Sequence to fold (101 residues):
Amino acid sequence: MATNHLVLSGTITRSRSFHSPSGIAHSVIMLEHKSQCYEAEMLRNVYCQMQVIFSGERFESVTDKLKIGVDIEVQGFIALQQSRNGQNRLVLHAENVELKT
Fold:
């Protein structure tokens, strides 16, 4: 059995919502994470940006709150997504979200 679970907190820097051709509601945000973590007994500044996708009815109650500048914590799984220009990136598919502000 393989495990694929990620918890990431940060600030929303981009946000958009749409419905797929099959009628499923989606919200896509860019989450910016900044923190400090210890690695090899040394404090390291950590920074990343990750696209997060919220799909389905379960997130419709929070979609209007997923705005630029809002701090959130997201739990979900990561998957590879290929952009239109052929570049691969990891994307977080949300299973749970908590608003921090």
